[in-house]
Every structure is written in structure tokens, then in C-alpha cells.
Amino acid sequence: MNEINCPHCKKAFKVDEAGYADILKQVKNHEFEDELKTRLALAENDKLNAVKLAEATTRNTFQEQLAKKELEIKELKSKSELTLAEKIGVKENEIIQLKAKIDNVEVAKKLAVNEAIQKIEKERDELANNLKTKDLEKQNIENTLIQKYSTELQNKDIIIKYKDDEIERVRDMKQKLSTKMIGETLEQHCEIEFEKLRSTGFRKAYFEKDNNSKLGSKGDYIFRESDEFGNEILSIMFEMKNENDGTATKKKNEDFFKELDKDRSEKKCEYAILVSVLESDSELYNSGIVDVSHKYDKMYVIRPQFFIPIITILRNASLNSMKAKAELAIVKSQNVDITNFEENINLFKVGFAKNYDLASRQFKTAIDEIDKTMDHLQKTKDNLLASVNNLRLANNKAEELTIKKLTKGNPTMTAKFEELKNNSDNPPSI
């Protein structure tokens, strides 16, 4: 915007570029017309002055000539020898000469006027050329400004068009996605994507609709995969949610979390995944895979294009977990073998003690009988006493029998019992 001060009221007012250019053009044209009128008036004055000067000069010259002629006429009158016819001839000749001079004066006057007019016309043409040059300069400035603002407007239009195209592209993508999902349903879309890879990547996987509603509710699809030994690698409860832009009531993804978690628990699935195109303007859900396990355990929300990737990610994580579980099973098996070994030792100790007690009572009875009936069997008695003493020592040794003593000199068993002890103190986390 340009600010202009009124020369009369001194008040400032603003005009735009177009208005300013129009006012400037009017001022330029007005100034040119005023200047042209002034120059033409001056030229007309010069012409009149030149004519008056020429007339005055001619008049003076004519008067001088008349005076001279009158003098000559007087002289001629004084000359009687001249005849009237000669005088008339002379006068006529003089008149002709005077007319010729007058004609010459008129020609000179016209020439002077023409010269003055040519000079004025030359100045006018120069002024016109200057004005034309100024107009060209003004036009160039206007064109430059127009080009500048046109370029800026064009760039602005390009940016606006790009944004409009981007909005239209996203809207078109959403419309195509919605149209595609409505045409084949989101469930069929996921089923088709899975079937494309079933023969190559999911040969032993199960992916079917959840048709069991005995517990009161059901999800959309259940995915299960097991290894060659029947051990489950991964299980997922899927729920698919689609919504057209024209739907009156807009749902949120969070509206389906609780029911999906319930379905996962009832169908004994490890993970719960909501495949959704709801909340299409959400930057959070448009990122692709969103972990919502802070609200519900092992639950994710994904866009349809991440259906196969999320299965692959969870599957790889489960396979790694399976390796850890297998190693843990081996450790547990070793722990059971050691526990059985210790239980067998305890059973041996209990049985040995029981047999010792029975034998001890029998030997005591026998000794009492021998003492009563056969003194001469003292040697036998001593042997029996010695036997009892040896049995007592054997029992004491059995009582003192420990894992430490059994594993002494056996590094393999020592390591196993030490590992068992460590595992008992720090049970492994699964």
C-alpha cells in the first residue's frame, strides 16, 4: 500500500498499487497536457510576435519606400520633360516592385511562422518522446512489480495447489481405502493378505474366523502357530474395524479395547490386535503400529497395511522366546534328575535304618537266649556283639551320609548339585 498526502487538506490516505498507478498515470497525462498547452501558447505568441515584427518591418520599409517614392514623384513632377504616360509606366513599375516586395515579405513571414511552428512541433515531439519514455519506464516498473507479485502469487498458488493436491490425495486415498474395505470388507482384505503368504511363510499357521461364541462374545479372527512338536509359537486374537467417512456416529479405537481383551483371555490367546481404519486423522494411529499394553496387556492397534508386519514381528519374538523356554526346560529336566537322585538316597537311608533296627532287635533277643542257655557259646556271643557293633558303626555312617560326601571326588555331580542349589536360591524367570 502507498500513502499519499492531500495537497489541500494535508490528510494522508492509502491506495493500493493499482490505484496508485492510475493516479500517477492521470497526473502524468495532466502535466503533459498542461505543458503542451503552455508550449503551444508560447509558440503561438512567438508566431504572433514574429508576424507583428515582420509587419512592422514591412510597414517601416514600405513607409520608407513610400516616402522615397513620394520624393521621387515630387522630383518627377519637377521634371517637365517626362510625359504622363512615362510617369504612369514608372509608377506601375514601382507598384509591381512594391507588390513583389510585399509578396516577399509575406513569404518571409510565412517562413518565419513555419520555422516557429517547426521549432514548437520539434519541442512538442521531444516532450512527447520524453513522456513516452517516462511511460515506458513506468510501464517497465509496473511490469516488474506485476511480474514480481505475479511470481509470488504464482508460488503461493503453487503451494496452495500442492496443499490442495495433497489433501485431495489423502482424501482420495481414504476414499479408495474405504471403498476397497467396504467392497471386500476389512476382514476379507486381511484374509487375502494372509493367504498370499500362507504357502511360503505360514505353512503350519491357523488363521480362521472365531465362530465360537459359547462364552458370550467372540473376536473376528484367531491366529495360532505351532512348531513340529506341537508347541505353540504364537497366538493372536484379531478384531477388524472399518468406518466410512459418511458414517454419522464416529467410533474411537479405544471403544473396542475392553471387549477385545476379554475375547483374548477367553480364547486363551497371547496377544490382542485391533486392525482399524477408525480415527483416520489421528497422527498417533497413522504412525502404523501403536502399543496400548499400558491399558490392556499385550494389545496393539495397527493400520491394515501393517497386518502382515505385526504378525512377523511377534512371531520372531516368540521364536526367540521358544529357544529360551527350551533351554529352561533342559535345565528343569536336569534339576528333576538330581532331585530324584537325592530322593533315592533318602529312601536308601530310611530302608537301611529300618533294616538295622529290625536286625538289632533280633540280635538282642538271640543274645539274651544264648546268655541263658549256652555260656560256652561266649565266642559266638562276642562275634555277635562285634557284629552288632559293626552294624552300629554302619548305621552311624549311613546317618552321616550327605550329598557332599557322595559327590566328593566327582566334579560332574558336584557341579550339578551346585547348579541345583543356585537355581533353588534364584528361580529362573519365564
Give a brief description.
The chain is an alpha/beta fold. The chain contains 9 helices and 8 strands.
Secondary structure layout:
Blueprint: E1 2-5, E2 12-15, H1 17-78, H2 84-184, H3 186-201, E3 205-209, E4 221-226, E5 232-241, H4 257-266, E6 271-276, H5 283-286, E7 289-291, E8 299-302, H6 307-373, H7 378-399, H8 403-407, H9 411-425
Parallel strand pairs: 5-6, 6-8
Antiparallel strand pairs: 1-2, 3-4, 4-5, 7-8
Helix pairs in contact: 1-2, 2-3, 6-7
Question: How does this model look, in words?
Answer:
- It contains nine helices and eight strands.
- It is α/β, with parallel strands linked by helices.
- It has a six-stranded mixed β-sheet with strand order 3-4-5-6-8-7, with helices on both faces. A two-stranded antiparallel ribbon has the order 1-2.
- Helix 1 packs antiparallel against helix 2 and helix 2 packs across helix 3.
- It starts with a strand and ends in a 5-residue tail after the last helix.
